[in-house]
Write a structure and sequence with these properties.
Blueprint (H helix, E strand, L loop, with lengths): L1 H8 L4 H17 L13 E3 L2 E3 L3 E3 L10 H5 L5 E7 L12 E4 L4 E4 L8 H10 L5 E6 L10 H12 L5 E5 L14 H22 L5 E5 L5 H13 L4 E4 L20 E4 L3 H15 L5 E4 L5 H10 L3 E4 L1 H6 L2 H10 L1
Parallel strand pairs: 3-4, 3-13, 4-7, 7-8, 8-9, 9-10, 10-12, 12-13
Antiparallel strand pairs: 1-2, 5-6, 6-11
Helix pairs in contact: 5-6, 6-7, 7-8, 9-11
């Protein structure tokens, strides 16, 4: 059924298809037409959280938390919504989303388009989902990079009571200078600030919400080693590897190879796995890693676990393969 639906949807504009799909999922769930999938697999402890299975939804698919209940019915072990910023913003000019079906890839330069943290919280409060929910936070495009911590602090404080964990997104290639925050000194300063705020919020709410950080695949071993040192030093709770890549060489002479933005799907799998492998070696079990990037079939998920991930997340593979990929990945990991 999904193959038939995809053949129709892939004839439409990618961004319009994205919104149509979310709207349809939301409507079908309200009508009770999405059966709840119970994908109990390898029960997993992640950042102190107990997951029914280690296969999650990656951030970016449900930026505003508008479709939480429907995604929750698809059998994921956990969901991550966002990236969300303090203020609403339209993101980058359209067109900004491109499918590359010949390579099972997606290019996006969305630019953190979202309705803002307050709108997301209203959506979360209106949902009935009771599984593990992560909130992915970022900075507004208009906020100078030297003031980035202010935006992350606003989102952290507002999201804290509504999240099971919070992810600090410093690796999107579509917000100017954002990846500069991955540098050793900049990363250490930002994460120390957020960990201090986490301690304050823990005391105020009587609830500990783990903090993870999401990194890029476009890193060399020295940078990976530096990041591992920082996240261990500040005692982050988890790390997500990886976001999209700016390297389009895997697309060869494809007409979309010159499009700006982050490339996901099959073309990022090798780079993402290499970062995951090196990161796991340098972290040496000090904190868990969530592996994401290029999971297009079940064995890709199992491979990330073998390389050192505790859990995995899906996005592009879900677009190309459909919801059955969740169940298949759970089975492969089990």
């Amino acid at each position: 059924m999904y193959a038939l639906a995809r053949s129709v949807l892939f004839k439409l504009d990618p961004e319009k298809t994205h919104h149509l799909t979310l709207s349809s999922l939301k409507t079908l769930h309200k009508l009770g037409l999405i059966p709840i999938t119970d994908n109990r697999g390898k029960a997993t402890k992640l950042m102190g959280l107990h997951l029914p299975n280690p296969v999650g939804l990656a951030a970016g698919l449900d930026k505003n938390g508008e479709c939480i209940d429907a995604f929750g019915a698809l059998g994921f072990g956990f969901l991550e919504v966002g990236t969300v910023t303090p203020k609403p913003q339209p993101g980058n000019p359209q067109p900004r989303l491109f499918r590359v079906p010949e390579h099972q890839g997606i290019i996006n330069r969305m630019g953190f388009n979202n309705h803002g943290i307050d709108a997301m919280i209203r959506n979360i409060e209106a949902s009935s989902y009771r599984g593990i929910l992560g909130i992915n936070i970022g900075k507004n495009a208009m906020t100078p990079i030297e003031n980035a911590a202010d935006d992350y602090l606003i989102c952290l404080e507002k999201a804290y009571a509504h999240a099971d964990y919070i992810t600090v997104n410093i690796s999107s290639p579509n917000t100017k200078n954002l990846r500069a925050l991955q540098g050793g000194d900049e990363l250490n300063a930002l994460l120390e600030t957020l960990k201090n705020k986490q301690a304050q919020l823990h005391a105020a709410h009587g609830k500990y919400v783990p903090l993870a950080v999401k990194i890029a695949p476009d890193l060399d071993e020295a940078q990976i080693e530096d990041i591992a040192r920082v996240v261990k030093n500040v005692q982050m709770d988890g790390i997500i590897a990886t976001n999209t890549t700016i390297d389009k060489s895997a697309l060869g002479n494809h007409r979309l190879a010159q499009e700006q933005g982050g490339l996901s799907g099959l073309p990022v799998r090798g780079k993402s796995n290499q970062v995951l492998k090196l990161l796991a070696e340098h972290i040496d079990g000090a904190l868990p890693i969530i592996g994401v990037g290029g999971i297009m079939e079940s064995r890709d998920a199992a491979e990330k676990i073998r390389l050192g991930a505790t859990a995995v997340q899906l996005y592009s593979g879900l677009i190309y393969q459909g919801p059955a990929l969740v169940r298949e990945c759970v089975a492969a990991i089990r």
